[in-house]
Amino acid sequence: MKIYRFLTGDDTSAFCHKVTEALSKGWELYGEPSYAYDSANGVMRCGQAVTKEADVTYSADLKLGQL
């Protein structure tokens, strides 16, 4: 089954590390990254979709980050 996650975070090196960690665990980039200004908090925010093939049965209780 293909699983999907959307990673988000402030535009800092921590976000890049989050995406890099996912890639190191077998996730693959899906689509283009997104970038938007969060006016409520006064920061730029990033987002990146990632996918991964996993031998699991879908359940809403899946901890996607642990696969």
**Proportion in β-strands:** over 45%
Morphology: elongated
User: What percentage of residues falls in helices of 4 or more residues?
Assistant: 10-25%
Distance between the termini: 12 Å
Q: Rg to the nearest angstrom?
A: 13 Å
Q: What is the tally of beta strands?
A: 3
Mean pLDDT: 95
Question: In words, what does this structure look like?
Answer:
With 67 residues, the protein is an alpha+beta fold. It is 18% helix and 46% strand. The chain is built from one helix and three strands; from the N terminus they run E-H-E-E. It has a three-stranded antiparallel sheet with strand order 1-3-2, covered by helices on one side.
Layout of helices and strands:
Blueprint: E1 2-10, H1 13-24, E2 28-38, E3 43-53
Descriptors for this entry?
67 residues, alpha+beta, 3-stranded antiparallel beta sheet, 3 strands, 18% helix, 46% strand, elongated
Quick synopsis:
The chain is an alpha+beta fold and 67 residues long. The protein has one helix at residues 13-24, and strands spanning 2-10, 28-38, 43-53.
